[in-house]
């Protein structure tokens, strides 16, 4: 396994099979004075043994910075530190590492917006969003090629969102510098609902500690972080924190359709295949732009293709030939190959087959990137070229920055994935809100987000998507968010944006700039909506419905 794939393993979409139970239970620690003394003794023993242990007392390392945004110089305070998460009785259970950026002059009680960022995995720390997207500093990236080895181009970020919001980047428990405390067991944090719960507690702690209850509040999740956002938006609202907005970047909110034997996944991928084939000039009759290629694939996917797949093995030879020919025109593979795959082309096969005549593979996180395998005859790529191209630069830049600029000191290693931790097993069960749902073995937190939006008519949701993201295809996002069953009066709170980029859209400098423009306007609308005396209404049908294409 290549170094890039290993370091990005936390971003890979996991198998949707339910996780098995953890091993044998540990002895229960008694509550009260005796339990506290046992806990102190255990921590003391670890310290004396030379272990690097997470702090129970919250840590802070503050530094000053300045960045120019739109010709305006902004001074800010960067705080790298920890939040201590406690159970209902006040016992510390986890230490969550964060980095916050606040505009100078911001005081407790301010009405200035604040946004909480996190990556996905599950089990990924948040140095990807931190180092690459909207913080006041950023690793400068090129498009799309391997980032040259050190020294790296890292510095002030003119596309930062600091002019619109303060920002807090949070690391999941077990990842980065975030750790369980004392006798807390891994299964208390490693699961869909458990993960959302600890993030909710950490956010509530930060807001209370820093006097931000009166600030407009936003969530910004990437990849599995969008699934977290669905559950988290509902959990926070259920605990008294109504959000102003949720940003979903490269979404995967429904793991249900990733089960073997279901055809929805092939429908979801088809427009992404079309965009990729268009980019690499593999279409026999290419349209003028990628948006048109995508629109044609969307129409085919929800029409003839969906009808054909629904027939399974009973499809007639004539219809199979016709569908394969139409697919070939849209995604650049031969009709014969498509028919050999029973009209169902797996992602790995597409990555290997599209540029096989050039002896190249295409990336998963970003299909604009190309790689070379030892041979061109294989079934699937041996590595992800888009992962290999950026991982080393992001990892090295973060380590240098957090130590030498932010000044955060610890003996603990920065884990690139919580999966490196002992006892890692993810509990995929999820209890969705509402009657009759029960526990889901393959979570769909779009249901949670829909419930939060129905309860809070001011909650805005913005879906950001890369045309060349093959890890979380945008058509799947449209399907998930299009089935929240919002009323017409609520659908205007949901909007979509599309960029010529991959999973980590911010790697593309041009896409990053347009994202900043789109987000700046969206933040203004979301904050203004909360000041309106009546909830916003949906646009007229002539303006276009969410999820039907770029808007």
Give me the secondary-structure topology.
Elements: H1 3-7, H2 32-48, E1 60-69, E2 72-86, E3 92-103, E4 114-118, H3 127-132, E5 137-139, E6 154-156, E7 166-170, E8 179-180, H4 192-209, E9 217-223, H5 224-238, E10 245-251, H6 264-279, H7 290-310, H8 317-331, H9 335-340, H10 347-353, E11 361-362, E12 370-371, H11 385-388, H12 391-404, E13 430-431, E14 439-440, H13 446-455, E15 460-466, H14 474-481, H15 488-491, E16 494-499, H16 509-531
Parallel strand pairs: 4-7, 4-9, 9-10, 10-15, 15-16
Antiparallel strand pairs: 1-2, 2-3, 3-7, 3-8, 5-6, 11-12, 13-14
Helix pairs in contact: 4-5, 5-13, 6-7, 6-14, 7-8
What number of structural domains do the residues give? Answer: 2
Output the CATH topology of the largest domain. Answer: Rossmann fold
Counting helices, strands and paired strands, the structural category is alpha/beta
Briefly, what CATH class of the largest domain?
Alpha Beta
Low-confidence blocks of residues: 1-36, 538-551
Protein name: Peptidase S10
InterPro entries: AB_hydrolase_fold (IPR029058)
Signal peptide: 1-21
Organism: Sphingomonas molluscorum
What does this structure look like?
Helix content is 34%, strand content 16%. The chain has 551 residues and is an alpha/beta fold. The strands form four sheets. Strands 1, 2, 3, 4, 7, 8, 9, 10, 15 and 16 form a ten-stranded mixed beta sheet that branches. A two-stranded antiparallel ribbon has the order 5-6. A hairpin with a 2-residue loop joins strand 1 (60-69) and strand 2 (72-86). Helix 5 packs parallel to helix 13 (446-455). The longest helix is centred in the C-terminal third of the chain and has 23 residues, at 509-531. It is globular, with a radius of gyration of 24 Å. Residues 529-551 are annotated as: Disordered. This is Peptidase S10. Keywords: Signal.
């Amino acid at each position: 396994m290549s170094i890039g794939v290993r370091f990005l393993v936390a971003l890979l979409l996991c198998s949707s099979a339910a996780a098995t139970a953890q091993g044998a239970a540990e002895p229960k620690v008694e509550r009260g004075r005796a339990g506290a003394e046992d806990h102190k003794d255990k921590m003391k023993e670890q310290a004396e043994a030379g272990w690097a242990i997470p702090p129970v007392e919250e840590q802070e390392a503050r530094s000053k910075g300045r960045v120019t945004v739109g010709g305006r110089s902004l001074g800010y305070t960067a705080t790298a530190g920890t939040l201590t998460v406690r159970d209902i009785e006040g016992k510390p259970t986890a230490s969550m590492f964060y980095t916050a950026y606040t505009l100078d002059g911001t005081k407790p009680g301010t009405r200035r917006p604040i946004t909480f960022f996190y990556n996905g995995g599950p089990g990924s720390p948040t140095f990807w969003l931190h180092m690459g997207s909207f913080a006041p500093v950023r690793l400068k990236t090129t498009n799309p090629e391997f980032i040259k080895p050190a020294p790296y181009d890292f510095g002030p970020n003119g596309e930062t969102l600091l002019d619109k919001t303060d920002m807090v980047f949070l690391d999941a428990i077990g990842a980065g510098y975030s750790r369980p405390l004392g006798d807390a067991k891994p299964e208390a944090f490693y699961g869909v609902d458990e993960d959302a719960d600890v993030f909710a507690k950490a956010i509530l702690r930060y807001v209370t500690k820093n006097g931000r209850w009166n600030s407009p509040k936003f969530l910004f999740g990437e990849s599995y972080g969008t699934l977290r956002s669905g559950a988290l938006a509902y959990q926070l609202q259920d605990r008294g924190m109504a959000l102003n907005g949720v940003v979903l970047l490269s979404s995967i909110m429904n793991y249900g359709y990733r089960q073997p034997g279901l055809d929805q996944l092939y429908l979801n991928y088809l427009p992404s295949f079309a965009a990729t084939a268009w980019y690499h000039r593999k279409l026999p009759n290419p349209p003028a732009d990628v948006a048109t290629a995508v629109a044609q694939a969307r129409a085919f996917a929800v029409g003839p293709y969906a009808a054909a797949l629904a027939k399974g093995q009973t499809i007639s030879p004539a219809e199979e030939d016709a569908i394969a020919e139409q697919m070939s025109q849209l995604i650049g593979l031969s009709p014969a190959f498509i028919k050999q795959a029973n009209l169902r082309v797996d992602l790995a096969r597409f990555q290997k087959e599209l540029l096989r005549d050039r002896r190249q593979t295409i990336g998963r996180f970003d299909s604009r990137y190309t790689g070379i395998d030892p041979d061109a005859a294989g079934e699937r790529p041996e590595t992800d070229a888009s992962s290999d191209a950026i991982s080393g630069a992001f990892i090295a830049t973060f380590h240098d920055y957090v130590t030498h600029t932010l000044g955060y000191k610890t003996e603990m290693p920065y884990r690139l994935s919580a999966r490196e931790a002992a006892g890692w097993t993810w509990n995929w069960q999820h209890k969705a809100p509402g009657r009759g749902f029960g526990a889901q073995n393959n979570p769909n937190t779009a249901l949670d987000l829909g419930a939060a939006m129905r309860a809070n008519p001011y909650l805005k949701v913005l879906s950001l998507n890369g045309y060349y993201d093959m890890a979380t295809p945008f058509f799947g996002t449209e399907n998930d968010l299009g089935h929240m069953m919002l009323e017409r009066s609520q659908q205007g709170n949901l909007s979509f944006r599309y960029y010529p980029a991959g999973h980590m859209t911010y790697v593309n400098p041009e896409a990053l700039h347009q994202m900043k423009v789109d987000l700046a306007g969206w933040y203004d609308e979301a904050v203004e909506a909360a000041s309106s005396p009546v909830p916003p209404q949906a646009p007229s049908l002539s303006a276009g419905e969410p999820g039907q294409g770029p808007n």
